[in-house]
Amino acid sequence: MVNPFVPWFIDVAENHGIPCALLWIHACSLYSIYHRYFKNNTFPNFENPNETIELPGLPLFEVKDLPDLLLPSSPPSFYQLASDFGKRLDKVKWVLGTSFYELKEEIVKSMDSLIPIRPSVSPFLLGEEKENNSVSVDMWNADEGSDKEIGELSSEFLEEIKGRYLVVTWCPQEKVFDQWTNAFLLAQVFKIGVRMRFKEDGVVSAEEVERCIMEVMEGSNAKEMKNKALNSKEAANKAFEIGDSSDMNINIFISEIIGKSFKASV
């Protein structure tokens, strides 16, 4: 079993006659994008960030919503890593996704012709937080932080996270993550989040963070977002029950490994 960041290991498995399973640690949508980019579709000119892209199972999105690894701004070494992975997709027998079928049904269906993908949500992601007590704010910093960026953080926040974070100064995080696509999915597809707006200098102000939090907590769509999130949580829990999608997918995967046919219980 390999992940996308060690594509050469797929060759090792092939050379030894070992069937290879890919543990896809990103959103299922990202797998669809990568696969079609390297294997199928002709994508538009990436120089225009507002150019629209249409892919099966996904709504219209723009070039700027693609993962950074595919964009011209990506460092050559990162793009090469993605390319090396894409070239080896045909050698993978199984794909295990960290999701569940009911959440991304249309996306998974659209990939049936590409390769069997088994969405299987991790049980460790379920039921860890107390009910209704948190808002997730996903942010990352590209470098050690300018005075402008640090100035947007309150002293209370810095004190609260003291000793609980890690800044890796040598890693250009804004170039190795796929958060643009994740943000698009959360806000435009699943409709359980809002996107922050950057200022011209690329900094997100404290006021903008406050606006987004208020919109999620008390805005006109707050109740709808909460209900959608709760429905997704219930569906995730159900997917792990005996006989439901994730349980069946895991059993099918194990049965294929040991060479036995799997019969679903009714």
TrEMBL record:
It comes from the Eukaryota. It comes from Quillaja saponaria. Belongs to the UDP-glycosyltransferase family. GO terms for molecular function: abscisic acid glucosyltransferase activity; quercetin 3-O-glucosyltransferase activity; quercetin 7-O-glucosyltransferase activity. This is Glycosyltransferase.
